[in-house]
Every structure is written in C-alpha cells, then in structure tokens.
Amino acid sequence: MTRSRNCLQILRERQLVPLALIAATVLACSDQPTQPSTALSSDLSAGLGASGKSSGAVSTLEWQKSARDLVKSHAVSPINAVRIYALHSVAQYAAVVAVDQGENGVGRASYEAQRGAIAGASAQLLSVVFPDAAAVLEAQLVADGNASPGDTHPHFTRGVAAGRAAGDAMIVWARADGFSLAWNESMRNAPGVGIWSGTPGVPPAGYQFPKMTPYFLQATSGRPAQGQFRSPTPPAYSLVPGSRFQTDLAEVRNISLHRTQQQIDIANFWNLNVGTVTALGHWDEQAALYIAENQLDERAASHLYAIMNAATMDATIGCWESKYYHLMLRPTQADPTITTVYPLPNHPSYPSGHSCVSAAAITVLSRYFPAHTGTLETDLAEAGMSRIYGGIHYRFDIEAGQALGRQTADWALAYDRDHGLLTAVGLGGQ
Q1: For residue 18, pLDDT beyond 90
Q2: 170, 263: one domain
Q3: Are 361 and 280 within 8 A, CB to CB?
Q4: Domain end: 145, 175, 205, which one?
Q5: The domain spanning residue 343 has which CATH number?
Q6: Mean pLDDT of the 128-154 span
Q7: Do the domain assignments include residue 427?
Q8: 402 lies in a domain?
Q9: How many alpha carbons fall within 13 Å on the CB side of residue 301?
Q10: pLDDT averaged over the chain?
Q11: Could you tell me if 242 and 164 lie in one domain?
C-alpha cells in the first residue's frame, strides 16, 4: 500500500520529473501477468452516487475511436497505423495499471481515476503523433473531466497525471524503436529474375520494419528477434506449368480475366488503405463491439487493446522481415497481363501483410471472445481472398501471412500470461 501511494504521488507530480525518469516511475507501478478474460466488469453503479455513469469501458472506447479518426483524417499508411495503435493502446493500459495500485477496482474514486488515466495517456501520446490535433485532444480531455457532476473529480486529475506519465514513457519507447531509420538507395536489393526490386528512387514501404524493435519477439535459432517466425521459403519463381508458383499465378490471372462485381466489391471493402482506419483499425472496431457487448471495464478493455495491437505490431515487423528476406515479386510483375483493382503496394508480395495483421488480431479476439470465433475466421478468410481478387497476392502469400500472424499472437498471449505485457516495454513485471 505504501509503495502504491508513493508511486501515485510521484505520477501526480509528473511535471517535476525529468523525462528520462518517467519510465522508471511507471516501472514501480508494475502490472501482474493476467489471463485473457471475458468476465463481465464489476457493477460500479453502487459507488457512483448521483453520477449515473455505467461501468463499461466508455473512456477506452472513446479514445480508441479518436485514434482511429486521426489515422483516417491524416491518411496514415496501414503499417504506420499499426505502430500508432500499439503505442497508444499500451500507454492506455500502463496508465490504468498505474492508478489501480492500491485501489479495490470499484467505487467513484477508481472509476474517475481510470477515466482520467485513459484520457491523460491518450491526449499525451496522440498529441505528439498528431501535433496539429493537440488542442482538440486537450479539449476532449477537459470535456471528459467536466462530464461528472460538479467540478472535475480529484481522482480524475490523479488519473490524468498517471496517464500523461504513461504516454510519455511510450513516447520514449517510440523514439528508440527504429522507425526513424533513414532510407538510402544503397539498401535496395540487386535486380534479378523473379526477384522483387521496387522502383528506383522510391523508398520501399516499410523498409525499416525488419530492423524495428518488437514488443515480444525474441532472437532464436540464429535468427534476429524480427525473424523469429519468419515465413518458410515460398514456392520458387518458375515457368514450369503445374509448379506451385505457376498454379497460384494462374489463379490470380484467371480472376483478373473474369472478375465479378462481387469480387471487386470484396476487394475494395477489405482494401482499408490510406484514408481509412486501416486493417487493424477495422479489427479494433470489432473489438469495440465485443467489449460493449460483454461490458468489459476500463482495465479489461485497455488490456485487450494493448495485447492485440502490440501483438499485431510484432506480426507486422515479422511480416516485413519475411518480405525483405524472401523478396517475392508481385503477380503483376510475373505476368503483366494481370490487372489490379487498386494500385500495387510498394513492397514484396510474400507474405501478405494484410493477412499477417488480420490473423494476429483475430487470434487475440477469438481468445477473449470465443463465441465470435466462427465469424472472425470467416471474415479472415474473406479478407485473405480479397487480396487475390484484387490481383496483388498469390494464395501462398495469404497462407503464409495468416500462419505468421497466428504464431506471433499466440506468442504474445503466452508472454502476457507469463510476464505481464508491460514487461516488454520496461514498465512492469512480476
């Protein structure tokens, strides 16, 4: 109890703490390993008096939507959006864990502190990522504080301080995660028959991801952490009829020649490119529906988003490590007669990034909400086929991407169970 009280006092006085010490401060407020849970939240209404607030994860869902809206309005690329969603979600969860130290998880004080923690973490981190939106984000935080009867509750203010500290800690993480690696044309692979090489003078998308710091992946069997679940060697480029490469290429070609309107519609629905909430944002929207349906509280909801989005970030890192390791050319590069529904992505074909992201996300969602597994698996299959309908992927791309995404998510869930996910960023543990 004493450690928790002292920790929260430090967080409340965050503005006096140098940035370098913020991570150490949040570390003292460590989380404990937790199992995925579908348990309904405790009924907080009895401890809320006249406020009339529900016990659901209102603040988590509200601020998660704000992040998706910013990704959409700022036309963030899908893989860069994964990074933002992960940073934001881990900051939210770290903030809730910090204010929960010494609390019993019920009553007005806990309710207000958790709301403040979510708002503080979100406003702090998203304002750095989207500086032009900082004023709007701060206004949203103030509005959250004023939502309760009377003046802003002191425990909401306490939560905001903890949240800002967690947001700052994840900003420190982000500045050292390798995303800022500068492109140099000498990094481009040499051209060759059946080898993806991209467009000279144009940096390939996600070129830095194979060197980025993952949350959970670990070096193993002589591979770097980013390649822990590296996709196996894809079918070799071949002109021989009946080879796996030619069989899958022929499937894309045949669809290209005879696309139905339904296939075009599916391809466009699942494209989720720049100017949308992106693929992970789509699965985050599904998570919001399931969270509301099951009335998860703020801690459970922020935990779900943190493990799902961080696991998906690792899947993206692993996927792009595999892409630039294998350098598989796109179907249209193997057969220029193939047409696409949308522009060709500027990165290698194998494995499918869309499938890596989607499989990782639904693996976590299925673990938390097993009743929805059938629907999630059906959606995953359609999302995978949409890339073949679109003319940009082979079937073996989809299969490998889904396998990598599932493996990475399973690994992340086990890490969270055994160590607590905040350990991965130096903010908690046993």
Answers
A1: no
A2: no
A3: yes
A4: 175
A5: 1.10.606.20
A6: 92
A7: no
A8: yes
A9: 31
A10: 87
A11: no
Q: What's the Cα-to-Cα distance from 114 to each of 9, 302, 304, 371, 389, rounded to whole Å?
A: 16, 10, 15, 28, 44
Residue 304's domain spans which residues? 185-419
What total of structural domains would you count in the chain?
2
Q: Count Cβ atoms within 10 A of the Cβ of residue 335 and give its class: 0-12 exposed, 13-18 middle, 19 or more buried.
A: middle
Q: Which two tokens stand for residue 93?
A: 């969860």
Which has the minimum average pLDDT: 95-109, 181-195, 267-281, 340-354? 95-109
List CB contacts of 426: < 8 A, sequence separation 6 or more.
Answer: 23, 27, 173
Question: Is 262 in the same domain as 151?
Answer: no
- Same domain membership, residue 220 and residue 134: no
Interatomic CA distance for residues 195 and 118, integer angstroms: 46
Tell me how long the chain is: 430
Residues 125 and 106: their CA atoms lie apart, in Å, by 27
> Between the CA of residue 163 and those of 120, 181, 405, what are the distances in Å?
4, 28, 30
Q: Which two tokens stand for residue 142?
A: 């103030």
Q: Is residue 180 part of a domain?
A: no
- Do 106 and 246 lie in one domain? The reply is no
Peptide bond into 154 cis (omega under 30): no
- The closest alpha carbon to 157, from 174, 140, 171, 144, belongs to 144
Secondary structure (DSSP) of 352-369: -HHHHHHHHHHHHHHHH-
3-class secondary structure for 214-226? CCCCCCECCECHH
Q: What is the pLDDT of residues 275-310, one digit of tens each?
A: 999 999 999 999 999 999 999 999 999 999 999 999
Residue 241 lies in a domain: yes
Same domain, 250 and 386: yes
CA dihedral 26, 29, 30, 32 (to 10 degrees): -150
Cα(9)–Cα(21) distance, integer angstroms: 14
Contact of 303 with 356, CB cutoff 8 Å = no
The residue from 175, 209, 235 where one domain ends is: 175
Report pLDDT for 192: 85
Dihedral over Cα of 35, 38, 39, 45: its sign: positive
Residues 237, 107 share a domain:
no
Judgement on whether residues 160 and 196 belong to the same structural domain of the protein: no
Check: CB of residue 253 under 8 Å from CB of residue 40: no
